[in-house]
Automatic annotation (TrEMBL):
<feature type="coiled-coil region">
    <location>
        <begin position="49"/>
        <end position="76"/>
    </location>
</feature>
<dbReference type="GO" id="GO:0005576">
    <property type="term" value="C:extracellular region"/>
</dbReference>
<keyword id="KW-0975">Bacterial flagellum</keyword>
<dbReference type="GO" id="GO:0005198">
    <property type="term" value="F:structural molecule activity"/>
</dbReference>
<keyword id="KW-0969">Cilium</keyword>
<keyword id="KW-0282">Flagellum</keyword>
<keyword id="KW-0966">Cell projection</keyword>
<dbReference type="InterPro" id="IPR013384">
    <property type="entry name" value="Flagell_FlgL"/>
</dbReference>
<feature type="domain" description="Flagellin N-terminal">
    <location>
        <begin position="4"/>
        <end position="138"/>
    </location>
</feature>
<keyword id="KW-0175">Coiled coil</keyword>
<comment type="similarity">
    <text>Belongs to the bacterial flagellin family.</text>
</comment>
<dbReference type="GO" id="GO:0009424">
    <property type="term" value="C:bacterial-type flagellum hook"/>
</dbReference>
<protein>
    <submittedName>
        <fullName>Flagellar hook-associated protein 3</fullName>
    </submittedName>
</protein>
<dbReference type="Pfam" id="PF00669">
    <property type="entry name" value="Flagellin_N"/>
</dbReference>
<dbReference type="InterPro" id="IPR001492">
    <property type="entry name" value="Flagellin"/>
</dbReference>
<dbReference type="InterPro" id="IPR001029">
    <property type="entry name" value="Flagellin_N"/>
</dbReference>
<dbReference type="GO" id="GO:0071973">
    <property type="term" value="P:bacterial-type flagellum-dependent cell motility"/>
</dbReference>
Length: 406
């Protein structure tokens, strides 16, 4: 079969161009370190690599969100620690107020110190994180979640303007703010079920403890009054259900003894001190929680109103303030423990996400990256092959019948 010289040259040139193109492609892969740079290089690997990249992007987004949450929670935990110290300082001052040797000036000084601590606490609960979000705004709402009201109708009252509720934790996410309403504004008043008050008109020294519930099913939710009267030289008390205007059975004309426990309708409490004839103790059901700011304000008002020495009313108010302050402090400690638990969880989630990112990076590298040893070896083989092809082409090109005619 006769092969035309022109056709042979064309085929040889095409083969040389192909080898040169393959060599150029190998050189590009080696320079970038990537085996797959475009979908045409390996369609299946390109699709799988894109999938791995998308998953990696989602993991990186989750890590950024988690880092922001951890930053906010760290600042919230620190603020809760500061708040706990302020509450303890207020408690120390209330304990000091029980000093029987104090007079009006000392009480006013204590009231001023407690008021200053209260203002500092208000600043703590309105703190914002590094991104400008309120730490205790709950689900959002006002940029200042705790607002103090002024004027005759709202003196000393703090209102929560945030959104109540707590953001739920996700598989890879944490809350970025805490529910300030649950922490600061849901403190049980007195013992949480009823409170005992001493009218300002009492002249004796009778007072009570905070009381407790002994039988929840026997509670009536009514108001009661314990009145004292001296009969035949014996101090007696009578318990009256003021809601129904009827005396409580078994609690009429009972001789009074300091330290005795009074129990009726599922409630019990202890009365101390010596009452005067005509003194009363009021027992009222608790219908709503109080808040830490109101607890401190009540203590401030009581201390400022004590122009003389220790009175039964002041002792009663301080005792109740201490009980409510301790309950509020417990809620702060519980919130701080929860924040700490979330931070621990954040560390664990961050580790999981980091491992997941490494897996996706490895998968992407396995699909895209070039085996440099193999790539260089292939490049050298292609280079040698191209050089051989060029040399053989040059040798064949010099072969011609006319060189031998003469």
């Amino acid at each position: 079969m006769r092969v035309a010289t022109a056709n042979s040259y064309d085929n040889t040139i095409a083969a040389l161009n192909k080898r040169q193109a393959e060599l150029s492609t190998l050189q590009e892969h080696i320079s970038t370190g990537k085996r797959v740079q475009r979908a045409s290089d390996d369609p299946v690997a390109a699709v799988l690599s894109e999938t791995a990249q998308n998953r990696l992007s989602r993991v990186e987004a989750d890590k950024r969100s988690l880092e922001a949450s951890v930053t906010s929670l760290t600042q919230a935990e620190s603020a809760l620690g500061e708040a706990g110290e302020l509450i303890q300082d207020v408690r120390d001052l209330l304990v000091a107020a029980g000093n029987g040797g104090y007079g009006g000036n000392e009480y006013k000084d204590l009231a001023q110190q407690i008021e200053g601590l209260r203002e500092r606490l208000l600043g703590v609960v309105n703190q914002k994180d590094s991104f400008g979000r309120t730490l205790f705004g709950g689900l959002g709402g006002s940029s200042t979640p705790f607002v103090e009201l002024y004027g005759p109708s709202g003196a000393g009252v703090v209102r929560f303007d945030g959104q109540r509720g707590q953001e739920a934790t996700g598989a890879n996410s944490l809350p970025q703010a805490l529910d300030g309403n649950a922490i600061w504004m849901r403190v049980p008043e007195a013992n949480g079920t009823f409170r005992l008050d001493l009218p300002a008109g009492n002249t004796g020294s009778v007072r009570t403890d905070m009381g407790q519930v002994t039988n929840p099913s026997a509670l009536t939710g009514n108001d009661y009054s314990i009145s004292f009267a001296e009969v035949a030289g014996v101090m007696q008390y009578t318990v009256t259900n003021t809601t129904t205007a009827t005396p409580v059975a078994g609690q009429v004309g009972v001789p009074y003894t300091s330290g005795n426990t009074v129990e009726f309708d599922g409630m019990s409490f202890q009365m101390l001190g010596q009452p005067a004839s005509g003194d009363t103790v009021e027992l009222l059901p608790v219908t709503a929680p109080t808040d830490l700011f109101q607890v401190m304000q009540n203590a401030v008002d009581a201390l400022r109103g004590a122009s003389t020495g220790q009175t039964a009313q002041l002792t009663q108010t301080i005792g109740r303030s201490l009980t409510e302050l301790d309950a509020g402090h417990d809620r702060v400690l519980l919130a701080r423990a929860q924040a700490g638990e979330w931070l621990n969880r954040g560390e664990a989630v961050d580790g999981v996400l980091s491992d997941r990112a490494v897996d996706h990076e490895s998968e992407k590298s396995r699909l895209e990256d070039l085996d440099m040893i193999k790539g260089i070896s292939d490049f050298q083989n292609q280079q040698v092959g191209l050089q051989a092809a060029l040399q053989s082409y040059a040798q064949v090109q010099r072969l011609s019948l006319f060189q031998y005619l003469g």
